[in-house]
Structures are given as structure tokens and as C-alpha cells.
Amino acid sequence: MKVLANDGISKSGILALEKGGFEVITTKVAQEQVANFINENNVSVILVRSATKVRKDIIDACPGIKIIGRGGVGMDNIDVEYAKSKGIHVINTPASSSESVAELVFGHLLGGVRFLHDSNRNMPLEGDTKFNDLKKAYANGIELRGKTLGIVGIGRIGQATAKMALGLGMKVIAADSFIPKVDVKVEFFDGQSVTTTITSQSLESLFKEADFITLHVPAQNGYIVTEKEFATMKDGVAIVNCARGGVINEVDLVKALDSGKVSFAGLDVFENEPTPATQLLMHPKISLTPHIGAATGEAQDRIGTELASQIISLLS
């Protein structure tokens, strides 16, 4: 049987699938050609990340598909229920990239509180002529330790983020409509661990209390954070979105940054991917990455081998 990994798959995943008797195709097929490619090559399994969409049109056009796999967590680019109604297995890897995304959140947070995102833009341009001016401009950093991190969505990635925050000495609060309480275990290199319980609170109270806010929710029908929510937050709050574009109203975010209500933002995802709004890309108070939350070697190895294991289990 043939597997089309249209958005790529790790070498370890390829080897595991080949060992299980599958042929793996890693040719990148344009979205409009996916259905034709699947049919012409007798593909039984299509694997995607966030780039390729597997909607009703592809599902209807490709009766030979047995499995649709998503390398990662969110499956908003797949018509999951429709696929299942056609007898197609839909799989994903919800636990594989949690730590990678959480580390990126703190990359944005740690960079933001010390202005690294802006310093790295200006030092190459003016570091040799305005060193002391830049030193003064970036001299008012703050520490994360002792501050309150509000986590919106305390699922696997939210919990991984909470562990890192606790390790840095932050107070952690959370809001989640589906998880009222969770025990978070912070494990150390020598086998010791500390466990604390995080109880979910209202989104409104989280916005009022948090010094920093990080979002870990699936794609929404509407915004979670708009001008109204920004108005309830602390002056100088910072916000990070490594979840999905469309969770924050980007126009309102820019206004809040310009007014000083929000001190900085970290964005890995955008409403208009792959062409984010220019006012976001050029803003000096935004730390930017191009949707790379799960893009570490370790996460991709875990994703590839986990997908392979599920596919072999279902089809062998």
C-alpha cells in the first residue's frame, strides 16, 4: 500500500512505514492536484500537517483512501466527521509536539521581556554606531519569575507550557471550558518531581489577573480576544499565540500594541497564512515565527513514528 506524506514526514517515520510494508511518497503535490495524484498512484493513506486540506471534495473524489492522518494536534484542515461517515480512519498525534510548542511559547516570552525580537532587528543596522543608545532603549526588561501566566486551554500543550512556567517560578492560572481541574507534574532530570493542581477559572477573571497570556485552543468560529477583552486586561500585558490564527483579532491587537495596553505579542500563527498582514510583520512590538510550533527534530520524529505505528496497526 502507498502512503502520500504530502506535507513531509520524518526519516524515522518513513523507515517505520517501509518496515511495515508500505511505500512512502514524499512528493509535494499542489492542493488542486491532490485528488488526481491519489487516484493515479493508488494511494491508500494521505498524511498532512497544516498546509494540505482534506475536505469533502477530495474525500468524495478518492474512494481508495483508507486513512487520513494529521501530523500534529488540530485537525481543522480535515473534514473529520465526513471522512469517518465514509468509513475512513482519521488519525493524529496529539501528544507528540506539546513540549516543542511550549518551548516556542517561552522563546517568545523570554525574547519579549528582554526585547530580543527588536534588538535582533536593530543591532545589525545600528549596533556599531548607536550601541549606547540601543543599550539604553533595551535596558528596562523584566523577569518572568514571580509573574502570573494565564493559559487559555489547559490541554496537553497548555499543561506542557504550565510545567515550564512553574519551573521558572511563575504563578500559573488557566481557563478551560472542558477541563475543570488538572494535576500538573513537573519532572526533574534526577527522577524527582513536584505535582501541583491547577483549577480552571473564568476567562474573564484570567484576562484581569494575568501578566502574560498564552492561547492553546483549536480554531474558533469567532475571536476569543478582541478590543473588548484587551480593555479588561492589565496595562502592559503581553500575549502569545502559538495555537491557531483567527483566535485573536489582529486589527485590535495592533491597536492595543500601539496604545501601550499590550507591551508585546508573540505570534506563530496568523489569520491570513501564508501571507500575514504587513502591519503585523513590520510591528516592532511583535515577535514573529512562521508557524513552526511543532517544527523540531524531536517532535517530527515522534510524529512520524506515531503515525506509522497507527497506520500499521489499522491496515496490517
From TrEMBL:
It comes from the Bacteria. InterPro entries: D-iso_2-hydroxyacid_DH_PdxB, D-isomer_2_OHA_DH_cat_dom, D-isomer_DH_NAD-bd, NAD(P)-bd_dom_sf. GO terms for molecular function: NAD binding; oxidoreductase activity, acting on the CH-OH group of donors, NAD or NADP as acceptor. Residues 9-314 form the D-isomer specific 2-hydroxyacid dehydrogenase catalytic domain. Residues 107-293 form the D-isomer specific 2-hydroxyacid dehydrogenase NAD-binding domain. SUPFAM superfamilies: Formate/glycerate dehydrogenase catalytic domain-like (SSF52283), NAD(P)-binding Rossmann-fold domains (SSF51735). Pfam families: 2-Hacid_dh (PF00389), 2-Hacid_dh_C (PF02826). The keyword rRNA processing does not apply. Keywords: NAD, Oxidoreductase. Belongs to the D-isomer specific 2-hydroxyacid dehydrogenase family. This is 3-phosphoglycerate dehydrogenase. It comes from Flavobacterium sufflavum.
